[in-house]
Design brief:
2 strands, 147 residues, mainly alpha, two-stranded antiparallel ribbon, 10% strand, Arc Repressor Mutant, subunit A
Length: 147
């Protein structure tokens, strides 16, 4: 199959083409890596998640999430608190500085998303979202990773 026809290749390409401008504009300006942003986005929406839950929500590997969380902690954007129900794990929360940055970058991301999808009508976006949800569910239930 030609890479131009592969849906998987197209998905990867879209991610790469949208990630590059993020790093060039937002990441450099705020000293934030893309994976740190991905972890921050999950924790901004779900305060108190564990590192394992961040792995599950982002689709990143454990090491990438671990590095991202460490970077956020070093920058004082993230704090870990002991889980009162299980002392072996920690719950993760954005600090005040992390919440402030999350608000700024989230707004920029929504603006960029609106620009990217400006030429796509609401019905198409709804179908696309539903298709992506099905694809994510399929990948999550699959025993083997996609190559």
């Amino acid at each position: 199959m030609d890479s131009d026809d592969s849906l998987f290749f197209k998905l990867v390409r879209v991610v790469n083409l949208t990630a590059r401008p993020f790093q060039q504009r937002v990441g450099r300006q705020h000293q934030l890596t893309l994976n740190e942003w991905r972890a921050m986005a999950v924790l901004g929406a779900h305060p108190g998640y564990t590192a394992t839950q961040v792995v599950e929500q982002t689709g990143l590997d454990k090491m990438s999430v671990s590095r991202a969380l460490a970077g956020l902690k070093r920058a004082r954007r993230l704090q870990a608190r002991d889980d009162p129900t299980d002392q072996r794990r920690s719950r993760l929360y954005l600090t005040a500085a992390g919440k402030e940055l999350f608000g700024i970058v989230h707004a920029l991301g929504r603006q960029r998303e609106a620009e990217l999808f400006a030429g796509v009508d609401a019905a198409e976006l709804a179908r696309f979202g539903a298709t992506l949800d099905k694809l994510m569910a399929s990948v999550a239930s699959s025993a083997e990773p996609i190559d």
